[in-house]
Amino acid sequence: MAATLDIRRAADRVVTKTSWLNSRHSFSFGDHYDPHNTHHGVLLVNNDDIVEPGRGFQTHPHRDMEIVTWVLDGSLAHRDSVGNRGVIYPGLAQRMSAGSGILHSEMNDSAADPVHFVQMWVLPDVSGIDPSYQQHEIDDRLLDGRLVPIASGMPGHDAAITIHNRSAALHGARLQPGDSVELPATPYLHLFVARGRLQLDGGTDRAELAEGDAARFTDSNGQHVSAGEPSEILIWEMHATLGSAT
């Protein structure tokens, strides 16, 4: 089956903006609901957030969601109702499984500098699991110029952290000008340009992608992306969509 490509530009994202938060949503989120933009594959949320110094998300609940956080700049402090605490910084992958129910807070750990992070949500295979938390640091050298599994629930994947979804994996890479990587061949793929500028080259699928842009593939077949400037990308490889995950 031929691949299909849907490019979503950064400027078209809806935004939640307050005195301390600038949150740009790739999908429907909170009060911003679009019935035609609720998910891709099993990915429901891709929020690109900047939180001002000393501010953040006070204690709030989650249930039955796998929440992966990847910090681009600064540091983010996590605390939850089952006793987990941690500070996330660039290169440290974090996953919170909300399961049967959890309360947590996410606060900028700095009193001087903003924190910039991407938070991504996928549904677990099974609802009502025990809440849990995992974080693991990825050596910067591993991310340079190649795709590295950040989070995965797929059998046989050696990722930094695990998620409770057997059909999904998150990969990341930091690319310098001229670096090129091949995207996974998968039924559903979501590529997010966290920073920088890329050239997408996959047969008839040729496009420039800038910071904040996303490319949504159905039946991706090994397209390449190359960096035109220092870039960081986050790629979800997904072998199911909502309603079909096993």
UniProtKB/TrEMBL annotation:
Oxidoreductase keyword on record: yes
Binding site for Fe cation: 60, 62, 104, 106
Entries under InterPro entries matching the protein: Pirin (IPR012093), Pirin_N_dom (IPR003829), Quercetinase_C (IPR041602), RmlC-like_jellyroll (IPR014710), RmlC_Cupin_sf (IPR011051)
UniProtKB keywords: Dioxygenase, Iron, Metal-binding, Oxidoreductase
Domain Quercetin 2,3-dioxygenase C-terminal cupin: 156-238
Ranges of residues in domain Pirin N-terminal: 12-122
Keyword Flavoprotein in annotation: no
Cofactor field: Fe cation
Cofactor binding description: Binds 1 Fe cation per subunit.
Gene3D superfamilies listed in its UniProt record: Jelly Rolls (2.60.120.10)
GO MF term list: dioxygenase activity; metal ion binding
Sequence similarity: Belongs to the pirin family.
PANTHER family hit by this protein: QUERCETIN 2,3-DIOXYGENASE
Protein name per Swiss-Prot or TrEMBL: Quercetin 2,3-dioxygenase
